[in-house]
Amino acid sequence: xxxLLAIRLAAMGDVAISVPVVFSFARNYPQxxxxxxxxxxxxxxxxxxxxNVHVLGIQLKNYDSFFGLIRLYREVLRPLKIDAVADxxxxxxxxxxxxxxxxxxxxxxxxxxxxxxxxxLLHHRIHRPLKAYYQRFADxxxxxxxxxxxxxxxxxxxxxxxSDDRQWVGIAPFSAQQxxxxxxxxxxxxxxxxxxxxxxxxxxxxxxxxxADVLQAWAAEYPHTESxxxxxxxxxxxxxxxRLTVMLSMDSANMHMxxxxxxxxxxxxxxxxxxxxxxxxxxxxxNYIQTDLPCRPCSEWGAKPCKRGDWACMEQLxxxxxxxxxxxxxxxxxx
Length: 335
Known about the structure:
Elements: E1 3-7, H1 12-28, E2 33-39, E3 53-58, H2 66-77, E4 84-87, H3 92-103, E5 107-110, H4 115-122, H5 133-143, E6 167-172, H6 184-195, E7 200-204, H7 209-221, E8 225-227, H8 234-243, E9 246-250, H9 253-260, E10 265-268, E11 288-289, H10 312-315, H11 319-334
Parallel strand pairs: 1-2, 1-4, 2-3, 4-5, 6-7, 6-9, 7-8, 9-10, 10-11
């Protein structure tokens, strides 16, 4: 029986992408033990993992230096006697841990970032889908001698809200990168128009005070609309996502978390693009909402300023387009 370690410390969306990989490995190789090193806050993503998966949730701030990482190795990792490391993060922080474990005798495999392909896509020398990130993560296990056959079923966290006979629409209008946020004045109009639909309940997802203030104002203005900010744990929010008829999300962690529960997710893409590889698990291409512009994609994560200065990739997506896509999904789910 081998002992493997998977390292993925951040960000939440990337950790969520790793979940189908971890679960599939565990079911493909039940005789082996897999430890997952990640942030403590992300542990709920692995709550339904097979018994041979053990999550090492840490407070990263306690180890956020070179000597802190050495201490993490000594206190947490060295006693596990790891045989092989799947470094699916592949940053300087994980390299320190890789080196320590390699000196201990562990085999190391790191994620191939595909930098040349990504640069070619961003500079518009090619325009085709690059390998999805969950496949890049799976390739790391294959490099260690453990090829993965996908074996992942949607997560089933409990929903803390009482059920009713309405169709629930989730809206997650924010992203860590401002460039990936659909203009809030237009998203507010989307919420307003959806609130007029009969038999629909709108649930708003976000985090932090600034987002809470915006979403609470929308909830106060429109009927059948509720802000969930600060009310539920990560696991409970995912339980609510599982109950949704449809989720409207930016290219963000919420898109990935809702996808893990099997909920249809309509995702909005502006400066970033599904072709880069951050495609959500199990979603159809028809669920991507985007406009075809020659300047797209201009950014892998949406962190760069708009070269045109007008954010046309977002501004040209109309309120009507978003509302029509949601109502079509509602009709489809209603049967």
